[in-house]
Amino acid sequence: MAAERAGPLLAIFTRGCEHGRVKSRLARTVGNDIALDVHRALVVRTLEAARRSGLEAEVWLDGDADSLPAHAFAVREQPPGDLGARMLAVVADIIARDRAALVVGTDCPVLDAAYLQRAARALDHADVVLGPVEDGGYVLIGMRAPHAILFDAIPWSTSGVYEQTLKRVAAARLRHIALETLWDVDTETDWRRWRRLQQDATPDPRSSRSSR
Predict the structure, then answer these.
(1) SS3 20
(2) Rg (CA), the chain
(3) Which of 4, 124, 139, 155 minimizes the number of CB atoms within 10 Å of its CB?
(4) What distance in Å separates the CA atoms of residue 191 and residue 65, rounded to the nearest whole number?
(5) Is residue 1 in a domain?
(6) Whole-angstrom distance, CA of residue 10 vs CA of residue 106
């Protein structure tokens, strides 16, 4: 009997938690100190989501590994090139190890373990799985073969990333599944949205008091 194929390998794409090197759009209005705190908090959330998902994962890092929050994942250095070239190289590396590849960023505060698990299951039924975000990009992409057309000459860091990717998917006649749309923290408006969400999720201590 043939051995059961291992599940997808999750590649967590991130920068190190280094002052002045992260969240440049956010830093323009709130400063590098807050930008670094936000980036670190998002990295922590993503690492925890990966841990809770039960998927095997690696951190693919641009920066200093010692700057990362504590975690139990292997850390590998991102290859050179633009974002598309780097992601394609990582996907190809994982697929060469006979694994499907899931690549996820660390900018999304509402990404959780269940979302990652749904992405992994979607790869049983599609050539490509995508996790779109509201600003026109995506937080996650997965595939079982390295489709270079999905990474070459994409207008990265623009509102057209997801639309262009879907056009390439259609042109290549690939089956795809899109997960629910999430949102990233890139600007001060996004950060304040996340702060409001955190405040709404914090229980009011008065609600737990017994009535007298």
Answers:
(1) coil
(2) 18
(3) 4
(4) 25
(5) no
(6) 12
Q: How much is the pTM?
A: 0.91
User: Is the pLDDT assigned to residue 13 strictly greater than 50?
Assistant: yes
Token code pair at residue 7: 């599940």
- The answer to whether residue 184 sits within a structural domain is yes
Report pLDDT digits (tens) over 135-145.
999 999 999 99
The residues, ordered by sequence, that sit 6+ positions from 37 with a Cβ below 8 Å of its Cβ are none
Rounded CA-CA distance 130/120 in Å is: 11
Query: What is the residue range of 44's domain?
Result: 9-208
How many domains, in total, are found in the chain? 1
Strand partners, 138: 132
Residues 6+ apart with CB under 8 A from 124: none
| Strand-pair partners of 62 | 15
Q: Which CATH number do you get for residue 123?
A: 3.90.550.10
> How high is the pLDDT of residue 5?
64
Residue 2: inside a domain, yes or no?
A: no
